[in-house]
């Protein structure tokens, strides 16, 4: 490893601009002549729109225009789409009720947009929005998925009877039932995965701009995947033809999934820019983010684990009800199905698995992928069950896991739920985690806590995830409407520097550094001479964007392919100039050398020769500029064990995390500093879900947790320091050997944390603790356990 | 009715027309086009907007521009001199104290003020000081590490 090659903690190239206030986030952009937009949003969870009176808003000072859903419909814009088709058990397609960008006759959640007001200033737009009179005729609403399935529940859509979007299944039901019939022990749990609000610190924003000269549109937007936004906006939302639409996603202040989706606001601003012939800018106020960013999780599950007399898992049976919200967001349908239930084998050899999922509409904000997307929910189900089974059987939870783990020599390993795991060494990560967390010393620490009146607990989470999404053919076979390859384009400049154009998008991940490391080490040039360009559909070839921990595994692999093409062409050029046969040219450390001689030229010299082709092969095109598309061969499967140790105050219910250990296998690590940072951030989100965060709707569908004052975000004094270690088992399936690291923390941490809290309180009769395990929830749980014992 | 407001920002005398309801952060971002100071919320909870007013860290969304008449304001843009990062900025860079960078200006401005008040803060003191700053990316681990390192360099 060199000081800046693969495996080096190179300091980030992007940091100087962020640290000096020179980042270029969406709201920092100001287009000449821009007008400002404010959306009129429904205050009700469910209401008929009797009429919308825009007249006084239209005559308010500074107001340029007011548009409603009818105006969009008249222009044939929309509706918004969901790009993944799920087939129910009976073979029917999932129910996909129309999702207009602005509601036309019915509003279906608090925050559902009904009109846009465009004015000369933001204040005028907001004042104008106050003047729009909507005649709402309130209707009964339902916010919880379980309630929405009851007979007589308020209906969200006429064309989704019983509020069911789909009723889907995976696995072999008969085999699984047979495993349960023969089981020596069955552990059964009701598991709620709490609803979360993503809250990237940068709010979503968009500027639509129309140029009458070129008849072209530009959309500046906070997107994780600008090319996908362009595709959807042109092909489905009908705003502009694809070749006349440029989408720019500049510096984006965090995404975590919430900025994957193609939302109403960007669609409407883009369309409206042509109507008013001015750029139209909208930036979400945080309270709008709470209402309109797609939410995450929200599952209610019944799960059962069957074990034989030796403690081997023989069957897993899971039923999940997933809340979709009022409409289907862009990828909503695949999250509680293929991104969830295909991971239910976990790290274990469980031979029979059956899961069915009912996806349900409610009068709430749409729910879609949030960091981990389906995989945290799967891990939480498995790892809570396994921990509970160990407790019920009186065995050590680490040993029960080890006994059931897939052995390191059993790969590739086919699970009963579609996935074929590529490689891994799960027991090794477990062992390393046990030693780093000093499991052996836990009893002593517990006794110490006890002597101070505190309850100490330890919890494990041996998680697995499917990342590097995904082979296009597999995606298509499972109902996905896209291909999930990535593109990479390398341009050597005549002076020997390199420009990378990637379809991946960075919004905190540090691609400008890691992608430069990949290319620099492949081509033997300094990292400083490599520049990464992303986030602009006019500059970058094409791209599927960044989510599902795919950037290094798929985007990085595309760059490797392009680099190999550069080397192949460079070899031809060098052979010509060095007067040798191509087969005799060796490439290493940035130099082309005639084997066994000292005749050599650097890749920079080759690049120069390619652009000033005076002495150059006759049959070769000038230039050193190559691109590649890479379609992955399979998902990659990062996995590991996290251990959380907590102290609970039994009098107040307060939980404090004493130690947190994360041992992960991400395959080859490109930049350990950045990878560790990804783990820290993911764990904080997972701990946030476990202890602090929870989206609450009241019975009428009002969003109770609609601001940072009501929704508890993890803060510096509420999350722990984290001990991170890695077992690198390179993936054989991509040229870098990487597996993806962006989501692991958020996937592993909730189960580790809740397992620790339950462990702490087990001898007080507590058998489960709901998320978030706030002091009040924990205290209530302790009280109920005490009452039950009486 | 627009009113005129004057103050010193990053060492320069500036003035501009604002509405009485214009927040300091809007004045800084929109009138002065200093966009390093960010807006992450509408309830004064996130700290992305922290600047220094007369040498003390303040959330610039909690002040009206007109309240700052005559004040001495400095923003993140003033910290580096001649392209050289301030020790706290450099510590964030060295310790990977930022990911998406959106919370970062507020974090750095808060941290600089902390070290002025408490030149050798403990991990716990740093964590408590940051209670008004939200970061969704880093889990705070490396921010805390950065501030410890930055404080050490600033102590000299
Ligand atoms: S914008 Fe000032 S605290 Fe959030
Ligand atoms: S670095 Fe993204 S919010 Fe802090």
Care to describe what's here?
The complex is a heterodimer of chains A (790) and B (156). In chain A, 28% of the residues lie in helices and 23% in strands. Chain A folds into three domains: 195 residues, Aldehyde Oxidoreductase, domain 3 (Alpha-Beta Complex); 327 residues, Aldehyde oxidase/xanthine dehydrogenase, molybdopterin binding domain (Aldehyde Oxidoreductase, domain 4); 146 residues, Aldehyde oxidase/xanthine dehydrogenase, molybdopterin binding domain (Aldehyde Oxidoreductase, domain 4), CATH 3.30.365. The mean pLDDT of chain A is 96. Chain A has 790 residues and is of the alpha+beta class. Chain A contains 20 helices and 28 strands. In chain A, helix 15 packs parallel to helix 16, helix 16 packs across helix 17 and helix 18 crosses helix 19. In chain A, the strands form seven sheets. Chain A has a seven-stranded mixed sheet, with helices on both faces. Chain A has a five-stranded mixed sheet with strand order 7-15-14-13-8. With 156 residues, chain B is α+β, with helices and mostly antiparallel strands. Chain B has two domains: 74 residues, Roll (Ubiquitin-like (UB roll)), CATH 3.10.20.30; 69 residues, [2Fe-2S]-binding domain (DNA polymerase, domain 1, Orthogonal Bundle). Chain B is built from five helices and five strands; from the N terminus they run E-E-H-E-E-E-H-H-H-H. In chain B, strand 3 and strand 4 form a beta hairpin. In chain B, helix 2 crosses helix 5. Chain B is globular, with a radius of gyration of 15 Å. At the A-B interface, helix 1 and helix 18 of A face helix 2, helix 3, helix 4 and helix 5 of B. One FE2/S2 (inorganic) cluster (FES) sits at the interface of chains B and A.
Features:
heterodimer, A: about 800 residues, alpha+beta, Aldehyde Oxidoreductase, domain 3, Aldehyde Oxidoreductase, domain 4, 3 domains, 7-stranded mixed β-sheet, 5-stranded mixed β-sheet, 20 helices, about 30% helix, B: about 160 residues, Ubiquitin-like (UB roll), DNA polymerase, domain 1, 2 domains, 5 helices, 5 strands, about 35% helix, binds FE2/S2 (inorganic) cluster
